[in-house]
Amino acid sequence: MSGSPPAASWLGIPAGSGFGLENLPYGVFSTGRDNRPRSGVAIGDQILDLTGVTGDPVHGTGSLNAFMAQGPRRWQTLRADLVTWLTDERHRRRVEPHLVPRGEARLHLPVEIADYVDFYSSRDHAENLGRILRPGGAPLTPNWLHMPLGYHGRAGTVVVSGTPVTRPRGQRRGPADDTPDFGPSQRLDIEAEIGFVVGSPSPAGRPVALPDLPRHVFGVCLLNDWSARDLQAWEYVPLGPFLGKSFLTSVSPWVVPLAALEAARIRPPRREVTPLPYLDDAAAEPWGLDIQLEVRLNGHLVSRPPFRLMYWTPAQQLAHLTVNGASLRTGDLFASGTVSGPARHQSGSFIELSWGGREPLELPDGSVRVFLQDGDHVTITAVAPGRHGETLSFGEVAGRVQPAAALTSQTASVPGPLGV
Amino acid sequence: MSGSPPAASWLGIPAGSGFGLENLPYGVFSTGRDNRPRSGVAIGDQILDLTGVTGDPVHGTGSLNAFMAQGPRRWQTLRADLVTWLTDERHRRRVEPHLVPRGEARLHLPVEIADYVDFYSSRDHAENLGRILRPGGAPLTPNWLHMPLGYHGRAGTVVVSGTPVTRPRGQRRGPADDTPDFGPSQRLDIEAEIGFVVGSPSPAGRPVALPDLPRHVFGVCLLNDWSARDLQAWEYVPLGPFLGKSFLTSVSPWVVPLAALEAARIRPPRREVTPLPYLDDAAAEPWGLDIQLEVRLNGHLVSRPPFRLMYWTPAQQLAHLTVNGASLRTGDLFASGTVSGPARHQSGSFIELSWGGREPLELPDGSVRVFLQDGDHVTITAVAPGRHGETLSFGEVAGRVQPAAALTSQTASVPGPLGV
């Protein structure tokens, strides 16, 4: 976490860019002149085209998966090479032609998602939801302090930032009703989260111990787990969240390498209950991360969720996920769960910001919100400390809410190939 | 469901084979002489090598996905061609060299699984579990009669029949304990299910209406959703099953085309509650299926679960899965949930067969079981009526329980590339 400051880049990166030499996040992009999706690295307000600068076809597959599958030694080598190429003036002539202005690029989903797991690791969030949804009961279920609770989400509906969020339809049951009705969700919400992308697989039957996180996790992104609270409330007992979540999950286009976050590593909060040995990180190198999120609704800052307060770390999440013998694949994505702090304005969801819809949130433009309205635009950003005082940006994950689609079944609109 | 009987095959298929001309299930196989995994069709005790007989590289990719993605017209055409080639003596000379004895083939996972969803659609099973796990309460949760409940499982741990089942470890908490301990599952169980494989994708925002099942579902397999009941019981509130299921899910190697099941289609049981319109199949063509399962433990028949009694049909499951706008991908797998009938010997899980472990099951060899022991071998088979009195076989999904693996972390056994 120290060492001499790196040489400056010949690129002339503006101070406070967030995309300096300490970051170098990976993404997949295309341009008007070349519409093939290919891997690149964000540097300042440019993207370095990795297919061009390396000549390696692994970067031309349209996702980061093939490169991620090469494993941590290869990730280290390329990262070191990138710093050399971007700081040593002798590489400038070779490298410069492969820079593309970020503003001209279209950003794609960076990873072909294998399995997507969503955890529930903020104690403040879990307690808030317990108090809102089960008033009078214990805020935490008995298992919460013993393991990072999680569930599998739908990998096929993970999309890149900017993809419109069509309001989902489904079954909803009001508190006074015996039976559900059907219609657009009236409690559409966000969940501001951090996602962890697995690069290097692990075989079945070989749990990933706490110190082994960096052998498997390639990098970190922002994630918005859009949630329909009314659908979720009606469906989730006993099998957990399903259609209330599976319509869309957005991720940021830039994956910050785990190696970029060395200076952000901190001790996680004190554990109230000593975890079982496979989760006990008291003697391990810490994997708390000092990432500060911000949530904006239609441009107004509404929340500043602190990732540093997360009770369970990504190392514990990965250890738990694999302790039963489950294998990991390149492209697996696991997310932290909603990041919330103890204060209302640190909440990573509107169900907390509006306390179950009972205390509307006032926006600076005079409007109020409980849950999301059609047309609303939500942006989640985050920063973390880099080395030498630099600040790392995670970019953003954003999306605009669109009205529920008209219910046209395929039968009505497409000629039937089977005549049924 | 009638029509003239088809011509016999020049192959001379034994009566009662289960793999006659009405079945023609697809799988992926390799042989000692040619170890490339490739697609084939089971016919009698042979496999017809589709790469050889068609010359089409779509069948040489190592999974059925590329062919399934071509859509229902293509599925129909090949199926019609196969019948012609196997019945018309004029094709014999060309086709016969591409037949491989089934006994000489190694069978692979037939489908690259995209998302895996597990439903919970047997009313008898849901009521049994409610009575066993929540005695005194209502056997069904209030939502059960209104929608096919489901959750996402781990796609990366879906394996082909025959893969050993290593007993998972995890957190378990006894009924008298305040805190959990850690160790091998002591309540390892099966769930006998039917799986449905999506061939043709559907776009986001376009729910698949009840009649559209055959546009999207390519075929049907057997599935064993191995379950660690002690891990599951401790973890599943409030996010649903996770590590109690994610260690392994086995599927049969043969995918029976949906088109083969025309004669097995029946009306599902009467619904106690009229479902919301998107799930109401009263006026639709029925998608109940008369599939009879059998479960064997170490060769002894222990259960005969009747799929015909399932409350929710695959058409309703698919309509529900997509009604919130979720897209489908080629390779998506959704399973019925445990198939159980009203009688004890129709139960698709040992937690039901032994009534929560309280009433041990006696086997003909004098041994007793509550849950699975190391070394136990479980086989699930199924048959369905074909046209013209033929019986279709689904083959089998089988697995043997192995002891929990020694807990060697990767750190202990592999040199660390990152030195952490």
UniProtKB/TrEMBL annotation, chains A, B:
Region (Disordered): 162-184
Binding site for Mg(2+): 225, 245, 249
InterPro entries named in the record: Fumarylacetoacetase (IPR005959), Fumarylacetoacetase-like_C (IPR011234), Fumarylacetoacetase_C_sf (IPR036663), Fumarylacetoacetase_N (IPR015377), Fumarylacetoacetase_N_sf (IPR036462)
UniProt EC number: 3.7.1.2
Catalytic residues, chain numbering: 125 (proton acceptor)
Pathway: Amino-acid degradation; L-phenylalanine degradation; acetoacetate and fumarate from L-phenylalanine: step 6/6
First-level EC class: hydrolase
Cofactor(s) this protein requires: Ca(2+); Mg(2+)
Keywords from the named record: Calcium, Hydrolase, Magnesium, Metal-binding, Phenylalanine catabolism, Tyrosine catabolism
Domain Fumarylacetoacetase-like C-terminal, residue spans: 117-390
Database matches in Pfam families: FAA_hydrolase (PF01557), FAA_hydrolase_N (PF09298)
GO biological process: one example: L-phenylalanine catabolic process
GO MF annotations, alphabetized: fumarylacetoacetase activity; metal ion binding
Domain (Fumarylacetoacetase N-terminal): residue spans on this chain: 22-110
Highest taxon listed in the record's lineage: Bacteria
Annotated residues for binding of Ca(2+): 118, 191, 193, 225
Residues that coordinate or bind substrate: 120, 134, 232, 236, 338
NCBIfam families, A to Z: fum_ac_acetase
Protein name in UniProt: fumarylacetoacetase
Organism of this sequence: Parafrankia irregularis
Lineage of the species this protein comes from: Bacteria, Bacillati, Actinomycetota, Actinomycetes, Frankiales
